[in-house]
Specification:
The chain is an alpha/beta fold. It has helices spanning 4-17, 37-52, 112-117, 119-137, 176-196, 220-229, 249-260, 280-291, 321-327, 335-357; strands at 28-32, 59-64, 83-87, 102-105, 143-147, 200-205, 208-209, 234-236, 243-244, 247-248, 269-272, 278-279, 298-300. A seven-stranded parallel β-sheet has the order 3-2-1-4-5-6-11, sandwiched between helices. The structure holds nicotinamide-adenine-dinucleotide.
Length: 360
């Protein structure tokens, strides 16, 4: 569902990128996983771009199985002449609809709770899906973003973690279907670049959050938002000491689209995130104060799911030197500000629903 916050964030990304994304005008763009959190936001950025460049829209194909992301995520764009909304699977689709200038490949199952329940579909999307996108990009695309994950580093011994760290990953544990297939997806990207010069850039997102995430997907910020909306308490299924570096979605999209436009980034992998490392407990305390006055209560519980914390990394913080050196990018949104925007967007969504169902 679209909100004023998402719309404003998408417009802000277009303003920040300015002339850099001019090559999107009159081009053909494929977004996979387009009903998901990041894919959906990229489509909203393309919508903002098209509203700003009347007469020269990017023609966008938005593809999703709608297994995780709901079709309703893009309902506000239905009927737009520049948008083709398709139900399809990146791993098995026989035809993606011709040639594309730009491919933004987000299709995957990113939520730990959902990928643990669907390990083979997760592997298929990350490996065969990426392979198919690389074949498609090889037919003359100007640029492709392939979304990997900071999970390729496993539980790293080097933090902040640079791109050349090879990882400390279990290849048989409950998270392996995701971590290892992301790693093989990256091997495919590096191989296609080496063999065929396919202009692919690999993005390793570090805990991106913001409006548009499914609140039941088991990731920490959606969990905090869901419980904050219900008035608390905010429940952590751990001791809260593990750290993460949270990046607000508009900062993330700005960095990714900058890379998409840069031929110098072809064949390379980039950490994309925010360098500020905070403990999960600190993130919860920040949400507690953003959500209410007096702050909501934070409680530590044990997860009912036995595998919940198996192979869960203790620290997660990107070394962003490579990204900064090439693009000059630094994340601008503080955790407090990002959480406030996120919560405001979900409150807006709730109010829209209540108006629609007449419960307000
Ligand atoms: N959000 C983050 O912090 C984060 C962190 C690390 C990596 N990533 C990666 O970024 C990408 C996007 O993440 P997200 O947070 O938007 O995830 P998401 O789960 O919200 O969205 C992914 C979308 O892909 C769709 N999908 C799944 N399998 C598919 C298939 N075979 N064919 C077509 N569509 C399929 C799902 O239905 C969903 O709508 C993923 O590759 C994810 O692994 C995200």
């Amino acid at each position: 569902m679209i909100t004023d916050v998402i719309r404003a964030d998408a417009e802000e990304v277009v303003i920040r990128l300015g002339r850099l994304i001019e090559p999107l005008a009159d081009s053909r763009v494929l977004v996979t996983g387009a009903a998901g959190f990041l894919g959906g936001f990229f489509v909203d950025v393309l919508d903002a771009f098209n509203r700003a460049r009347i007469g020269h829209p990017a023609q966008v194909t938005a593809l999703d199985t709608f297994m995780v992301g709901p079709a309703a995520r893009l309902a506000h764009l239905r009927g737009k002449p520049w948008l083709s909304l398709r139900s399809g699977n990146v791993a098995t689709e026989p035809d993606f609809g011709g040639h594309f200038d730009w491919i933004i490949h987000c299709a995957s199952i990113g939520s730990p709770a959902i990928y643990r329940a669907n390990p083979l579909a997760t592997i298929a999307a990350n490996v065969q899906g990426t392979w198919n996108m690389l074949d498609l990009a090889g037919k003359g695309a100007k640029g492709m973003l392939s979304f990997s994950s900071s999970e390729v580093y496993g539980d790293p011994s080097v933090v902040p973690t640079p791109e050349d760290y090879h990882g400390n990953v279990s290849f048989t544990g409950p998270r392996a279907c995701y971590d290892e297939s992301k790693r093989l997806g990256e091997t495919l990207c590096a191989t296609y670049f080496r063999l065929n010069r396919v202009p692919v850039k690999v993005i390793r997102p570090f805990n991106v959050y913001g409006p548009g995430q499914r609140l039941d997907d088991g990731r920490i910020i959606p969990d905090l938002v869901r419980t904050a909306l219900a008035g608390g308490p905010l429940v952590l299924y751990s001791d809260g000491r593990a750290t993460r570096s949270f990046c607000y979605v508009s900062d993330f999209a700005e960095a990714c689209l900058t890379l998409l436009m840069m031929p110098e980034a072809d064949g390379e992998a980039f950490n994309v995130g925010n360098a500020e490392e905070v403990s999960i407990a600190e993130a919860a305390r920040t949400m507690a104060t953003v959500a209410a006055e007096p702050p909501l209560v934070v409680e530590l519980h044990q997860s009912p799911e036995a595998a919940f914390l198996v192979d869960n990394p203790q620290r997660r913080c990107p070394d962003l030197t490579k990204l900064h050196r090439l693009t000059g990018f630094t994340a601008r949104t503080s955790l407090r500000e990002g959480l406030a925007r996120t919560l405001a967007s979900y409150r807006e969504e709730l109010a829209q629903r209540q108006v629609r169902t007449g419960t307000m």
